[in-house]
Write a structure and sequence with these properties.
The complex is a heterotetramer of chains A (151), B (129), C (121) and D (335).
Chain A (H helix, E strand, L loop, with lengths): L2 H11 L5 H29 L8 H17 L3 H8 L1 H4 L2 H14 L4 H9 L5 H24 L5
Helix pairs in contact in A: 2-3, 3-6, 6-7
Chain C lengths: L1 H23 L5 H17 L3 H8 L1 H4 L3 H18 L1 H6 L7 H16 L8
Helix pairs in contact in C: 2-5
Chain D lengths: L6 E3 L4 E10 L14 E2 L10 H19 L9 E4 L7 H10 L3 E3 L6 H14 L5 E8 L1 H8 L15 E2 L2 E9 L6 E6 L4 E2 L8 H19 L9 E4 L3 H11 L5 H4 E3 H5 L10 E2 L1 H17 L5 E9 L3 H5 L5 E10 L5
Parallel strand pairs in D: 2-3, 4-5, 4-6, 7-13, 11-12, 11-14
Antiparallel strand pairs in D: 1-9, 2-8, 6-8, 9-15, 10-15, 14-15
The chains are: A mainly alpha (151), B alpha/beta (129), C mainly alpha (121), D alpha/beta (335).
Chain lengths: 151, 129, 121, 335
C-alpha cells in the first residue's frame, strides 16, 4: 500500500462537491441580499438626504446590523450552510465574521477576548484591501504622471 | 417575522415615486430646451430647473445604457453649454435629484426660493460620502 | 425602479457565484476567497471598470465585498488626483468608512447583548 | 510484512469493572442513545464557558463510573484522562475536583484508548488496583479552537465531521468476574498520509488505523475474521470506506466498523458523521461494553484514531500526521 495507491483510494471515495447546486444556491441568496440592499438604497434615498452614490454607506451599515441580529440569534450559520458564498460575499458576510468572532471570545473578557480577536477572520479582508488599493492607486498615479493614462 | 418588514418596505418605496419616464421642464416657457432634450436618444426622461444663472437637468438613462452613464451626462452637458453659454449647466442621472426636482415643480417655487433649492440640490449631489 | 431590483439581483448573484467557484473549485478557504474578491474589486477600479458597474447594478455592485476594495482604491485615486502621490495614502478611507465602523460597533454591541448559545439543529 | 512490535499482552487480566458515559443534547437521537448513562440537556449552563461545561461532563461521567463500580472516589489509585482542548484544561480542572492522582494524556481522538492502555499497564505492573481511565470532547469548545467561531457562516463540506459532546470513562480493576478483559493493547505509530485538509479527517486517519490494525493482527497472529467486530474511533463514513478499500479481502468489510460513521445514523446534518475523543470513548464504553457483557461479542478490537494537527500546523502548511491506539477486549465464558 504505497502512497500512490492510497491517494487513488481517497480520490475514489471522496464525494464530489455538488458544484452546480452550490452555485445556484449562492446566486439565489446573494441576489436576494443584494435586492434587499437595493431596497434599502431606495429607502434611504426616499426618506433621507442621500443620493444614489452616497446611499450605499447607510445601506452597508444596515446590512451589517441585520447580519448582527441573524448571527446573534444563530440563524446566520444555517443560512450560510445552505448558501455558502452567497451569504459570505455580501457585506453581511463581513459583518457576520466580525460579530461571530466578537461573541465567541466574550468569555475571555472584553478587552483581551473581544477586542483582541474581533478581526480574527475579517482582518485579512481589510489588510489586503488597503494593500491592493495602495498599489493600484500608486501605479495609476505614476502612469498618469508619465501621461500614459488619463484619470 | 423578518420578511414582513421587507415586504412593507417594498411597497413603501415603490408607491412613493411617480411614473418613471416623465419629461418636464420648469419654468416651462423654454420650448428650445425641450427640443434639445427630446433629441437625445440615450435618455428616456428628464426633469430640469432653470433660474437666472444655473440650469439643472436630471436625466433618466435606460438600464442597459447605464454603463456609460458618465459619458452620456458629459455629452448632454456639452450640448446644453453651447445652447446656454452664460449659464452653469449641471446634468445628473440621480434618483434623489429627480425626486427633489419633482417636489420643487409641484410647489411651483419662484425665483429666490427656486435658486435656494437648486443650491441645496447641487450641494447634495457633490457629496462624496 | 423594478429594473434596478432585478439588475441588483442578477449582478449580486453573479458576484456570489464567482465567490462560490473560488471556494468550491479552487478549494480556497473563506478568508482567501474574500481577500481575492477585495483585491479584484480594487484592480477593477484601477481599470475604471467598477464605477460603471455600480452605475449599472446599484446595490448589486455595492453590497458585495468587492465594493470595499473599489471604494478604497477610489478614495485613494480621488485624493491622488488632488495631492499627487501622497494623496494615495491620505485618501484611502475617504470614501468608505461606514462598513468597517458599523462592523466594529455592532460587533462589540453583539458581544454585550448576545449570550453564547447551545448548539441546536 | 510490517515488523514493529508495540503490542503488549496483559497477563494479569485487567478488566473493565464499570463504565460511565455522559453525552450532550445533540447526541440524544443517536442509535447508541439507549446505552449512554446520562444525557445532559445543556451543553453549557447560564454563565459557564464551554471549557467549564466540558469539565462538568467529565466529572459527571467519573461519578457515574465509580458509583456503578461500587467504589469510592478516594479508593481510585490513578485518574487517567484526556480531551482535545489546549493543555487538557477541562480534564485538569476535573482532576482538581476529583483530588486523586492524575495522569493527563493527549493523542487527539485516540486519547480514550491510550488512557485504557496506560491504565492496563499500571494494573499489570501491580502498582495500582483500581484505575479511572477515559476521555472526553465537547463540540463548541473544540469547534472554536480548531475551526471557526461557532456563529461564523462557513459552509461545511460533505467530508466534514461533527465533534461529539461526550465523556466516557471506565473503572479498570484486575480479574473482575463477568467483566470484559483487556487482553492486548497496541500502541500506534504516527503515520502521515500526506492529507492536508482539516475538514477531511477520515482520509488523514485511515492509514494510521490500517497500520495499527495490521500490526496488531501480525503481532497476535490472528486474522480479521477472528474478531466479532473491529471498530475504529472516528474515521467517519468516508474514512471507513477508505479503510475498507485498503483491506483487500472482501469478507472483512462486514467486521470493519466505525463509531463515528454510525454515531449520528443517517442524518445528513452531520455530513460525514461524528468525530472527537468523546465519540470513541462514548461508543466503546457503552454500546460495545454492553454487547460484550451480554455475550453478543466475544472478541473485539477497538481502534481509536486521532489526528495530531493543531490550528497552527495547518496554517504553517503542514500535512496532518495521525495515530491510532488499539485494545483487544475479550469476554470469557461465564464461570
Amino acid at each position: 500500500m504505497d502512497q500512490k495507491q492510497f491517494e487513488d483510494i481517497v480520490d475514489k471515495q471522496n464525494p464530489k462537491t455538488p458544484m452546480f447546486t452550490n452555485m445556484l444556491k449562492a446566486f439565489l441568496v446573494g441576489g436576494i441580499i443584494c435586492t434587499i440592499g437595493q431596497l434599502l438604497v431606495f429607502f434611504y434615498i426616499r426618506f433621507f438626504s442621500f443620493t444614489e452614490r452616497t446611499a450605499a454607506n447607510p445601506t452597508a451599515a444596515t446590512l451589517v446590523f441585520i447580519a448582527m441580529l441573524l448571527t446573534g440569534f444563530g440563524y446566520y450559520k444555517k443560512i450560510s450552510q445552505f448558501a455558502g458564498a452567497g451569504s459570505a460575499v455580501p457585506i453581511t458576510g463581513f459583518g457576520n465574521s466580525v460579530v461571530s468572532a466578537a461573541i465567541e471570545h466574550k468569555t475571555e473578557g472584553y478587552v483581551l477576548g473581544v477586542g483582541g480577536n474581533m478581526f480574527k477572520l475579517a482582518g485579512s479582508v481589510i489588510v489586503f484591501g488597503v494593500l491592493s488599493a495602495f498599489f493600484v492607486a500608486l501605479i495609476k498615479t505614476i502612469l498618469v504622471k508619465i501621461g500614459v493614462v488619463s484619470w | 417575522m423578518k420578511n414582513k418588514w421587507i415586504v412593507i418596505l417594498l411597497f413603501l418605496t415603490l408607491g412613493a415615486c411617480s411614473d418613471a419616464s416623465e419629461r418636464s421642464v420648469y419654468p416651462s416657457q423654454d420650448v428650445e430646451l425641450e427640443k434639445v432634450l427630446d433629441e437625445q436618444d440615450s435618455i428616456i426622461g428628464y426633469k430640469s430647473l432653470m433660474d437666472d444663472n444655473t440650469l439643472l437637468v436630471s436625466i433618466e438613462i435606460p438600464t442597459m445604457k447605464r454603463f456609460s452613464k458618465v459619458k452620456i451626462e458629459e455629452n448632454i452637458k456639452k450640448e446644453l453649454e453651447n445652447q446656454y453659454p452664460n449659464k452653469e449647466v449641471i446634468v445628473i442621472d440621480d434618483l434623489k435629484v429627480r425626486w427633489e426636482i419633482e417636489k420643487i415643480i409641484e410647489k411651483e417655487q419662484e425665483s429666490k426660493e427656486l435658486t435656494k433649492s437648486i443650491e441645496k440640490i447641487l450641494a447634495l449631489s457633490k457629496e462624496e460620502t | 425602479m423594478i429594473s434596478s431590483l432585478i439588475v441588483a439581483f442578477v449582478v449580486g448573484g453573479l458576484i456570489c457565484v464567482v465567490g462560490q467557484i473560488l471556494m468550491d473549485g479552487l478549494k480556497l478557504t473563506p478568508a482567501h476567497t474574500m481577500s481575492t474578491l477585495v483585491v479584484s474589486g480594487s484592480i477593477l477600479d484601477g481599470f475604471g471598470l467598477y464605477e460603471p458597474l455600480i452605475a449599472f447594478a446599484g446595490a448589486g455592485a455595492t453590497v458585495p465585498i468587492t465594493s470595499f476594495g473599489n471604494s478604497l482604491t477610489h478614495g485613494a485615486l480621488a485624493e491622488a488626483e488632488k495631492h499627487g502621490l501622497i494623496g494615495v495614502l491620505t485618501g484611502m478611507f475617504e470614501v468608505t468608512s461606514s462598513g468597517i465602523s458599523a462592523a466594529i460597533l455592532f460587533g462589540i454591541i453583539a458581544a454585550f447583548i448576545f449570550q453564547k448559545r447551545n448548539t441546536t439543529y | 510484512m510490517v515488523k514493529a512490535n508495540g503490542t503488549i499482552q496483559f497477563t494479569e487480566k485487567p478488566s473493565i469493572a464499570s463504565t460511565g458515559v455522559t453525552v450532550g443534547p445533540m447526541e440524544k437521537d443517536s442509535p447508541f442513545a439507549s446505552a449512554f448513562d446520562e444525557i445532559l440537556l445543556l451543553e453549557k449552563e447560564k454563565n459557564e464557558s464551554y471549557e467549564e461545561a466540558n469539565t462538568r461532563f467529565i466529572e459527571k461521567a467519573c461519578a457515574i463510573t465509580v458509583k456503578k463500580g461500587h467504589e469510592k472516589m478516594e479508593n481510585i489509585d490513578v485518574f487517567i484522562g484526556g480531551d482535545l482542548i489546549n493543555q487538557l484544561s477541562p480534564t485538569n480542572f476535573a482532576a482538581r475536583k476529583l483530588k486523586i492522582p492524575y495522569l493527563g494524556v493527549f493523542s487527539a481522538c485516540a486519547s480514550s484508548v491510550e488512557s485504557l492502555i496506560i491504565g492496563s499497564l499500571l494494573l499489570e505492573s501491580g502498582k495500582a488496583s483500581s484505575i479511572l481511565a477515559g476521555a472526553s470532547s465537547h463540540h463548541p469548545a473544540v469547534e472554536r479552537q480548531f475551526r471557526y467561531p461557532l456563529e461564523y457562516g462557513a459552509q461545511k463540506p460533505k467530508t466534514a465531521q461533527w465533534t461529539v459532546t461526550a465523556a466516557g470513562f471506565a473503572l479498570l480493576q484486575k480479574q473482575v468476574k463477568n467483566a470484559p478483559i483487556i487482553t492486548h493493547g497496541t500502541i500506534g505509530r504516527v503515520v502521515d498520509g500526506k492529507q492536508a485538509n482539516p475538514l477531511h479527517m477520515g482520509a488523514a486517519m485511515a492509514p494510521a488505523a490500517r497500520d495499527t490494525i495490521e500490526r496488531h493482527l501480525t503481532n497476535t497472529n490472528s486474522k480479521v475474521s477472528d474478531f466479532d467486530v473491529i471498530m475504529t474511533g472516528d474515521l467517519g463514513k468516508i474514512g471507513l470506506n477508505i479503510l475498507k478499500d485498503m483491506f483487500t479481502d472482501e469478507d472483512c468489510h462486514v467486521i470493519l466498523q466505525d463509531a463515528g460513521a454510525q454515531f449520528y445514523g443517517e442524518d445528513t446534518f452531520f455530513n460525514a458523521g461524528a468525530s472527537g475523543a468523546g465519540c470513541s470513548a462514548a461508543v466503546f464504553l457503552s454500546h460495545i461494553y454492553n454487547q460484550l457483557q451480554n455475550g453478543t461479542f466475544k472478541r473485539v478490537l477497538l481502534v481509536a484514531t486521532g489526528a495530531l494537527l493543531s490550528p497552527l500546523t495547518f496554517q504553517q502548511g503542514e500535512t496532518i500526521p495521525c495515530i491510532a491506539h488499539a485494545i483487544e477486549c475479550r469476554m470469557e465464558k461465564r464461570n
